[in-house]
Amino acid sequence: MSGLCLASLGEVEESLMRTIAECVEERIGLPVVRRMQLPVPLDGYDRARGQMSSVTMLKLLLERAPSGVSRILGVTESDLFIPMLTFVFGQAQLKGRAAVVSAARLRQEFYGMAPDGTALLGRARKEAMHELGHTFGLIHCPDTRCAMSLSINLPQVDSKLEWYCEGCWPVLQERLEEVRYD
């Protein structure tokens, strides 16, 4: 089966990259290939918003994706946006190859609270699983415990699991089988 390329966009803590790689391998069985750090695409920075375009990051990931992997997941410390929303925790191509997750708003210190490394790692795993689910065609799930549940704030991220519900998991398994035989 072709696997996942995990790439940092800019500097990202090793513990964050490692926990995402382990989660993907354990939870969905995709082998993870680590890639060297990619540069943050400065042409995606919006000065008025003080944020990076997640679309620009997805384009860079697709351009730099190594051959032989079915998916590429970027992880960044940059605060991300899409034009219609104030921010996003991440973004993915629905039924595509690329996804990106931002650690910026998953950090408690972003909101003026004391850092919590354990919470950050758990949130990053959940959002990575969520965005990867989109690449396999999964849409937002009404089950608030499912990794595919929409999260627009930290309490919603914290309340879901890094796992898929009984409705989403079989769909993901079917899509993973398709990837195994590509």
From TrEMBL:
Keywords: Hydrolase, Metal-binding, Metalloprotease, Protease, Zinc. Pfam families: Peptidase_M54 (PF07998). Coiled coil: none annotated. It comes from Paludibaculum fermentans. GO terms for biological process: proteolysis. InterPro entries: MetalloPept_cat_dom_sf, Pept_M54_archaemetzincn, Pept_M54_archaemetzncn_arc/bac. Its cofactor is Zn(2+). Transmembrane segments: none annotated. Gene3D superfamilies: Collagenase (Catalytic Domain) (3.40.390.10). One of its GO terms (molecular function) is metallopeptidase activity. This is Archaemetzincin family Zn-dependent metalloprotease.
